[in-house]
Amino acid sequence: MLDIKNLRVKLEDEDKIILDGLTLKVPRGEVHAIMGPNGSGKSTLGYALAGRGGYEVTGGSVTWNGDDLLAMEVSERAAAGVFLAFQYPMEIPGVATLTFLRTAMNSLKKARGAKELTTPEFLKVVTAKAKDLGIDKDMLKRPVNVGFSGGEKKRMEILQMTLLEPTLCVLDETDSGLDIDALRVVADGVNKLRGKDRAILVITHYQRLLDYIVPDKVHVLSAGKIQRTGGPELAHELEKSGYAEFTGKAA
Amino acid sequence: MTIAIIKTKAEQQLAAAFERVAASLPGASWVPAMRKAAMGAFVGAGLPHRRIEAWKYTDLRAQLKEAYAPATGKGATLDEKALAAALGPNLAKLPCNRLVFVDGVFVADSSGPTPDLGTDFHFLSIADTLGDPDFDWMTHAFEQTGETKNDPLLALNAAFVTDGVTIRIVEGATLAHPVHLIFLSSSAAPAASNTRNLIRIEKGAHATILESHIAVSGLARQNNSVTALHVCAGAKVQHLKLVAEGAEATHLGTWTADIEADATYNAFQMTESVALARHQLFVTFKGEGAAFNFNAAVLGRGKSHIDTTMVIDHAVPKCTSRELLKCVLDGEARGVFQGRVIVRPGAQKSDGKQMAKALLLSSNAEFDSKPELEIYADDVVCGHGSTVAEIDEDEVFYLCARGIPKRDARALLIEAFAAEAIDAIAHDGIRQALQARLNAWLAAGV
């Protein structure tokens, strides 16, 4: 289970507090959605879980299956099963996508004490999963995310999520920049990953994605705290009423 | 009134060394007079210093505290194990025409195999032919004219040259294997070697020529190496150089190339953390439709100082020149790039572009880049660019978030940066070998 207790996060370079005592539990086997207005701290939560620099944790705790995530390096968190699908995936010129995928997969296998993949094994699994997501072979030969459209970048994130076999998936605004067909492909990819040992946290501004990835629970994040928790119907309610109730509460 | 010029210790040592060894250097006939004239020219000007524009960032007078005694190389033998260790496994196993020089002297017994010898490819040791009346054409190879007129490194090399090779690739031939010239420094005492290679790629011939300048680790060396290349009409040559003589070595290297019509000269250099390197290239287009492509990977750490300075002379119309320098600098390393492109009057449709990029891994590293375009024609396309950057921490985070440990993530990004230059190498075996050396260099320190 992902267990976040009273998490407080500020920007390292500013005094601005972004997460202000966030508490959240996501059991294995469940899909939870975090919804909230712009500036509520949604992306910060994703970065804090993945361990991005520039975000300072000033209080609280985060554990995954009992292990203290905050004490780990970024790559160690990945080895422990954490995967953040980025809202804006980085472009990495000069590093071929296949090289990147193989390095990442084998780094994780090594860290998890599993046998590294041979080149034919690797190519076989990548080719098959890429096909499912409508990613063509030429894309895999290009440098990571360089020149990819918004939709291609998101598909690539889901491909990575599929290949790296995480147990805690955090999807940060995965629906932004996707047309309806791409959204369906991406959602299918995520739904295939649903399973009893895996927890999935879907961060989104809009309810639309949740029509395709139906969550077990919906949490409303505003002013750095979870303001309300409910079932999938909460997302529809928010779509009608907006976030005014919560931003008003915060003011 | 006379002006007393104060000579530095190194200049005095060089002059004294010449007096001491001149009589024992190879070459009869015109050679002793040529050596004496070259030494005279060098002594007159002294070591180059920062007030000479071409040496603005590499003050040899200040940096060369001491001149080592010339390596004699007499009775040199080759330690195959030491050679393989210095080359690295991939280069040591490269199928090639192998010519080996130890401490500045050709070691015929240890050279070979040379599978292409006799039909497509001919070579002779310079020491065996210098001053021989049958090889009088060589006198021209030691004349310094035009842009090389006052070059001190060429003068010093001419004065002290002990050996090297002349190579001829026969008209129309396509050499099956690369020629691998290996210059190994092995004597324990600090020493200087001076070698010169004269290479002629005849009409329409295709060849790959690799120079490896390497050393048994940690030797104090001052090596001055010159290669003069003549690329005849329609010929195509890939000319590469690896400089890895160790952290105590000074490498002074000059390449000159005359490129005739429709010929292609693809040059590549990789330099690994020597104490001081000065690479000079003097490239002259002699016929229309010729092309020059230069790629370089500079890998500096510690107190390494690596200078790449080139003069590209678009003397005739319709020629193309491209330069890409990728510089990775860590510690207190310093990289220098000076690219001078001259487009002569009437050299219309000249096309010249250069790009120098540095990746600084430390706040104490430094990169100096100075492009100079001298354009005397009006219908030309010329450009230059230069960038200096650090590793992008967002990119590191992205890689780490996918499970790649930070050290590996940084190495992957640095490798990607430097690989752009290495990827341009057409010969698969050499490209893979140099890629492996880059990875080994990264593994040793990043």
Give structural notes:
The complex is a heterodimer of chains A (251) and B (446). Chain A is an alpha/beta fold and 251 residues long. Chain A has one domain: 3-Layer(aba) Sandwich (Rossmann fold). In chain A, 39% of the residues lie in helices and 28% in strands. Chain A has helices at 42-50, 74-79, 97-111, 119-132, 137-141, 150-164, 180-193, 208-212, 233-241, 244-250, and strands spanning 2-11, 17-26, 31-35, 55-64, 67-68, 82-85, 92-96, 143-144, 168-172, 199-204, 217-222, 225-230. Chain A has a six-stranded mixed sheet, with helices on both faces. A four-stranded antiparallel sheet of chain A has the order 2-1-4-5. A two-stranded antiparallel ribbon of chain A has the order 7-8. In chain A, a hairpin with a 2-residue loop joins strand 4 and strand 5. In chain A, helix 4 (119-132) crosses helix 6 (150-164). Chain A is globular. In chain A, 41% of the residues are buried. Chain B is of the alpha/beta class. Chain B folds into two domains: 71-392, no CATH class; 393-446, no CATH class. Chain B has a ten-stranded mixed sheet with strand order 2-1-5-7-9-11-13-15-17-19, covered by helices on one side. Chain B has a nine-stranded mixed sheet with strand order 3-4-6-8-10-12-14-16-18. In chain B, a hairpin with a 2-residue loop joins strand 1 (97-102) and strand 2. Chain B is globular. Chain B starts with 8 loop residues before the first helix and ends with a helix. The A-B interface holds A 50-53, 73-75, 77-79, 83-84, 86, 89-90, 92-95, 99-100, 103-105, 107-108, 111, 143, 160, 164 and B 392-395, 397-406, 408-409, 412-413, 416-417, 419-420.
